[in-house]
Amino acid sequence: VGGGSNDKLGALEAIFPSLNSTDWAMRIDAVTRLEKLAAEQGPELCARGKLLTLFDHLTPRLTDSNSKVNVVALQALQTIVPSVREGLSSVVATIVPAL
């Protein structure tokens, strides 16, 4: 089971470049993949100290110049926040200014 978690967390690093793509559709896809991964691996992300990195990459999408990306990122927070609630205090200073 541990190997599966490592694979999933490796997938996290693979998503980050797409979050900065010039193609808005790729950014939406990346946010959706990030949301799914966080929903599945929330406690693991907290335990491995990956939460700040996740939000460092997600937060710019909350203020994306494309409104579709912006809306998808805001909706993703509804899934991500409950999944990572244990570590939320460490990232709240990153998220709140973007809202």
Automatic annotation (TrEMBL):
The protein's name in its UniProt record: TOG domain-containing protein
